[in-house]
Amino acid sequence: MAGVGTTVSTQGTLITVAPTGAELEKDAVPALPVTLAELVTTAIQCQEAGAAVIHVHIRDDGGKPTLDLGRLTDTVRALREATDLVVQLSTGGAVTDSFERRLAVLDAAPDACSLTCGTVNFGADVFMNPWSFITELYARTQKLGIVPEFELFDFGHIATLHRLLAELGEPAGGHVHCDLVMGVPGGMPGNAATLVQAVAALPPGATWSATGIGRTAVPVLFAALAAGGHLRVGMEDTVTFARGRPVTSNAELVARAAAAAELAQRQAMSPAAGRAMLGVPDRR
Ligand code: KMH
Ligand code: ZN
Q1: Please, are residues 180 and 211 in contact by the beta-carbon 8 Å criterion?
Q2: Would you state the pLDDT for residue 99?
Q3: Secondary structure letter of residue 88 according to DSSP
Q4: Residue 119 CA: which ligand is closest?
Q5: Alpha carbon separation from 26 to 22, 61, 213 (Å, rounded)
Q6: Is the Cβ–Cβ distance between 114 and 91 less than 8 Å?
Q7: In the chain, what percentage of residues exceed pLDDT 90?
Q8: Residue 93 pLDDT > 90, yes or no?
Q9: pTM of the shown model
Q10: 183 φ, ψ to 5°?
């Protein structure tokens, strides 16, 4: 791995779309993709708009978040058939999901998975990620060859990432890619000054994306591009496109990110380029 300077991307911009999440209800946000058909349609549109990675949470027939293994497996297969996107399953799930079920997500054999590097207050809830769970999940990703994306909600999570790499070694794929999740009530704030500090603390050679929750989405997007990072966008993170104007589709968030990346002279990366950067093997 090269030095800290390489955290500034000189290539294109990797755009990850997080279309659904586990928190919002379809009744409150009708544009939210919750069925498999809606998710696949969304994925196709987002790939066309410039996404290379999809961060996936799924829902049951009642629209509630689920980690049902059969559904996850079907989802991975359907997304692979319909798109070239890197399929990254969430191992965060919902705050109510057990560690056991979150570990079992890997049995659906995705290309990649999220791996949150610490516990964080999450609005009125607590998103639990103790060290014992982090290490067990990480060791399973290494064994199964599933590429983790390190989700960092706060500075302590960055310290834990350093400890994880020092004690358990490099991830599947051999490359460290992080996602700064900013603006969660309870995590680090979503602003440029915090982003610059967080990026400086990342492991040497790591690449990174950033996402801002809610109204921090736009400032974090521009700060990430200015600092040479990659982008995550999607309705998991924000459902307001502009003041008083709800998001109508995930694809419009991806299109806005791709347009901003183009202005920054770092065009949206293709899924193939994303795979190469992340160390995700081509399983198609
Ligand atoms: N739904 C949050 C509790 C992840 O996907 O890995 C956790 C989350 C992080 O969304
Ligand atoms: Zn998520």
Answers
A1: yes
A2: 99
A3: E
A4: 1
A5: 11, 12, 18
A6: yes
A7: 95
A8: yes
A9: 0.97
A10: 90, 5
**SS3 of 210, please?**
strand
For 274, list phi and psi in degrees, rounded to 5: -60, -45
Contact of 183 with 216, CB cutoff 8 Å: yes
**Residue to substitute in 23, 125, 151, 237 for testing ligand 1 pocket (most ligand atoms within 8 angstroms of CB):** 151
Q: Hey, whose CA ends up nearest to atom 1 of ligand 1?
A: 94
Q: Which two tokens stand for residue 42?
A: 């969304």
92 Cα to the center of ligand 1, angstroms = 4
3-state secondary structure 245-277: EECCCHHHHHHHHHHHHHHCCCCECCHHHHHHH
DSSP H stretches of helix in the chain: 36-49, 69-82, 99-104, 131-144, 155-168, 192-200, 217-226, 250-263, 271-278
> Which ligand lies nearest the alpha carbon of 113?
1
Residue in the block written with tokens 């009642």: 62
Q: Please state, in angstroms and rounded to a whole number, the distance separating the CA atoms of residues 43 and 249.
A: 11
Half-sphere exposure of 162 (CA within 13 A, CB side): 10
Please check whether residue 173 is in contact with residue 280, taking contact to mean a CB–CB distance below 8 angstroms. yes
Does ligand 1 come within 6 angstroms of the Cβ of 114?
Answer: yes
Kind of pairing between the strands at 65-66 and 58-59: antiparallel
Element (H, E) at 218: helix 217-226
Reported confidence tier of residue 282, pLDDT bands at 50, 70, 90:
confident
Dihedral (CA of 77, 82, 56, 284) sign: positive
Contact 172, 145 (CB under 8 A): yes
Q: Is the CB of 66 under 6 A from ligand 1?
A: no
Which H or E run includes 42? Answer: helix 36-49
pLDDT at 11: 81
Name residue, tokens 């900013």.
Answer: 182
Q: What are the phi and psi torsion angles at 177 (to 5°)? A: -125, 130
